Amino acid sequence: MTDSLQPDLPGPDAGSPASHRFALFLDFDGTLVDIAERPDAVVLDPATLDALVRLQHRLGGALAIVSGRNLATLDALFAPFRFDASGLHGAECRLGERTHFEHGVPTHFRRMVDDLKHRFGADTGLLVEDKGKAVSLHWRLAPERAEDALAAMTAIVADLGGAYRLQHGKAVAEIVPVGASKGVAISRFLAEPPYRDRCPVFIGDDLTDEHGFEVVNARGGLTIHVGAGPTRAQARLASPAEVRARIARWADGEPIGFVPAKVPASSTAATVPTTTELL
Ligand SMILES: O=P(O)(O)OC[C@H]1O[C@H](O[C@H]2O[C@H](CO)[C@@H](O)[C@H](O)[C@H]2O)[C@H](O)[C@@H](O)[C@@H]1O
């Protein structure tokens, strides 16, 4: 099957396949894998892993995972493969063998994480996820405690001073370095080969992905939101199962393409039309 080309997309080098016009960025939780009760309960099925490897090859290497997880966890989840990746909502970036860390880990941050673990470590409802340079407090197992958990994390961020920010997510509040965002991470990839000069495509499901959607929209790329709810993304897929099916088809050689929607610069998340048609 031949690749679909859009006339206003950047062109590939002479002789390279049309799929080399695209750079694909994929969120992990809620996009590639279904949401589970606990962070350690997610499963990436072998067929999707195989499809990702084939798709990465088809894209000439321009495929990166952009996640809130840290790089070490992502590598374990994708083992034995090691994809280009950004972790911790953009605070870590690895392209090939080069790894960039947005921040060090100050002692007072680690002390705070230890306190948090001490406070909630034995809790059966709230779960502390220690990610090294970031930390999450999950309430999926105790939704009735969402308000208290969020208040605790908000107070901690305030105590930390300006170097950290709160990242809201699905039944979770996370504390991440203030300069980190998925938009920053995607821009970083797009400055380097093989991502440079390509049309970015980003698929994600959560609030953190909106930063990435903003950057990709501004570069004339394609943004796809997984599931319902307000978003800046231009198109939707209903579920991670639909994402996995799409990835399998792209890996098998189906056209990677779309009819770009017009996204007015002044649009807010609630008003952006989601009319982009995936090919
Ligand atoms: O950017 P992502 O790859 O989507 O990562 C965002 C966060 O995902 C994980 O938490 C979420 O998924 C868990 C497993 O399905 C779920 O139990 C939890 O309620 C969700 O918030 C992960 O644990 C976080 O570290 C990521 O930042």
UniProtKB/TrEMBL annotation:
<keyword id="KW-0479">Metal-binding</keyword>
<dbReference type="GO" id="GO:0004805">
    <property type="term" value="F:trehalose-phosphatase activity"/>
</dbReference>
<dbReference type="GO" id="GO:0046872">
    <property type="term" value="F:metal ion binding"/>
</dbReference>
<dbReference type="InterPro" id="IPR006379">
    <property type="entry name" value="HAD-SF_hydro_IIB"/>
</dbReference>
<dbReference type="Pfam" id="PF02358">
    <property type="entry name" value="Trehalose_PPase"/>
</dbReference>
<comment type="function">
    <text>Removes the phosphate from trehalose 6-phosphate to produce free trehalose.</text>
</comment>
<keyword id="KW-0378">Hydrolase</keyword>
<comment type="similarity">
    <text>Belongs to the trehalose phosphatase family.</text>
</comment>
<dbReference type="InterPro" id="IPR044651">
    <property type="entry name" value="OTSB-like"/>
</dbReference>
<protein>
    <recommendedName>
        <fullName>Trehalose 6-phosphate phosphatase</fullName>
        <ecNumber>3.1.3.12</ecNumber>
    </recommendedName>
</protein>
<dbReference type="InterPro" id="IPR023214">
    <property type="entry name" value="HAD_sf"/>
</dbReference>
<dbReference type="InterPro" id="IPR036412">
    <property type="entry name" value="HAD-like_sf"/>
</dbReference>
<dbReference type="GO" id="GO:0005992">
    <property type="term" value="P:trehalose biosynthetic process"/>
</dbReference>
<keyword id="KW-0460">Magnesium</keyword>
<comment type="pathway">
    <text>Glycan biosynthesis; trehalose biosynthesis.</text>
</comment>
<dbReference type="InterPro" id="IPR003337">
    <property type="entry name" value="Trehalose_PPase"/>
</dbReference>
